[in-house]
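Course assignment 3, question 2. Fill in each field.
Student: A.L.
Task: Predict the tertiary structure for the chain below.
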Amino acid sequence: MMGAIVHKYLFLLSVSAIPVSAHAQSASEEALAEIIAQQDAAQGQQQTAEGAPQSEQIVIADYRVPLVTVTANGLGTNVQNTGQAVTVIGRDEIESVQGADVTRVLQRTPGLSLSRNGGIGGFTGVNIRGASADQLLVLVDGVRVADPAAPGGGFDFGNQLSGMAGKFDILRGSNSTIWGSEAIGGVVDISTRAETGMVGTFEYGARDTLTANLAAGVDEDFGYLGLTGSWLSTDGFSTADTGSEADGFEQFAISGTAFVDLTHNLSLFSHVNWSEGTLDIDGFPPPDYAFADTAETQETQRLWGDLGLAYYGNDLTLRAAFSRSETKRDNLDETGALTFGSEGTSDRIQLRGEYRLIGGLSLAFGGEREWTAFETNFDPRAETEITGAYAQLGWVMGDFAIHAGARLDDHEQFGSATSFGGDVSYSLGNSWRVRASIGEGFKAPTLYQLLSFYGNADLEPEESTSLDLGIEHGRRDSGLHLALTAFRRDSDNLIGFNFPAGYENTARARAQGIEAEAGVDITGTLRLSGAYAFVDAEDRDTGLDLARRPQHFGTIFADWESDFGLRLGADLRISGASFDNAFNTVRLDGYEVLDLRAAFDIGEHLELFGRVENAFDADYRTVAGYNTPGRGGFVGVRARM
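Answer field:
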């Protein structure tokens, strides 16, 4: 019975891919202590039966809850027990960074670079280890949220606000063995925020920016119910760097989470996320048809959610779910007339499980079927489907952990694709460990690439093989943390657009480099951390750099906390130069951006905070022709009940 309790706890703690995370996030320290105490007591009884000495007392005060990732193996796994490169950023760190812009949080991840078309709300692409933004699988509470109607099928982080996020689980490297299509560069799993009680935040600042979010939840014996809402409104600034008219953004988002115990080992779970936003955009007006101020707008509606059952026993864990995501976008001219409209949908059924065979040996397995559809005001509705299944053997024994698996997918258009992958982790003692992984990735052609007016029904999937080798000490959230990782990824059959032929499999790419992380408690109240990456990403046919992929980039951040409630922090983002286009003729200069933060606790339930973004008013670009925000100050208040 003890095994079931512990596996149930870890199952709940597994965020997103096991979307009962809300209950786990709100679990009390006393409940965790009881679980660990029971586990230790059971182990002690076993030792006594074998003649080993039994501890006279169980010490749990210094126990640290393990960092759990779901992006590595599909189910909850201690980060220390996987050889894959994973970064986990929790809610406390998200709040310490402050603000609604998720890029300021994500940039703490080694190997992760960003580009954005203007201000918050503008299209924001995330590149991991030099992979295209379309080659990143993004999940919210385990639901695939990329827009099937987008030409490249990628996810727009510009519409994802940090006030809704409880955790970012970021895998770097190809992992289609577990996740199927899109997992070429990596996987980002975003857990919706889940609070016990009520937490509300209000913030005002530069460019007449108002942000408010509220999260509330009830954690009872029967399960957990939670609700989170977020609203942002900003006047913004001119998206076009030649313009003067401010381009604003407004978004309202709401999410609900439910987890209900049906029996002692069977649970019902559900997530629903909905958002609606309006973004002012610039365009290419006559007579010059150059990028400049216009009065155009883009309206975006997104809905995603799931419903499922989770079973956790002594030897078997199962999770079955149905999920759906919808993205609708309308571009309107200054008169409100539709210039372009699209709608993409995805319906998916899936089963994931793990069977603990003997000792530390386990079998993870799963299968899924996904139906996607899209239509635009220029293209009639088109549909396709893909079915996949995988199996992965894992062995965790003491300081050693190893996994190896394979997957088969069958797509209605291009046929089958196979993926293989494995990883190994070994503890050297004194908090040091070495890790390595190898993985294959593929990305199915999007519906737009296959079946639109410019489509090509004969396209093959993009493919990749990645490997990395690293050594790490400690964990990134406390104590001494050091990590160094070398990686390489080769990609083939990359899909490009050639006029007038349309979409074709023509390109090859290679990305290789190193990632370094460090964190140290300089004093008991001051911590200094940093992440750096060297990424050499090139077109293997031309030898030129891939567009918008700087070779050198990183973030240094420091946090200091007093004994009377005052906290101070700073984040310095450094990026080297890159090119804006594939021909390497348009250069983007390197830049440094410094943010300063402060927060002060007033009693146990109230917090005042503020920050200055881009303190030195750096003028830089991540996309040629698109402005970036200058210096801006923000103040806010957070209340907990």
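Instructor remarks: Confidence is low (pLDDT under 50) at residues 1-61. The two ends are 36 Å apart (CA to CA).
Grade: pending
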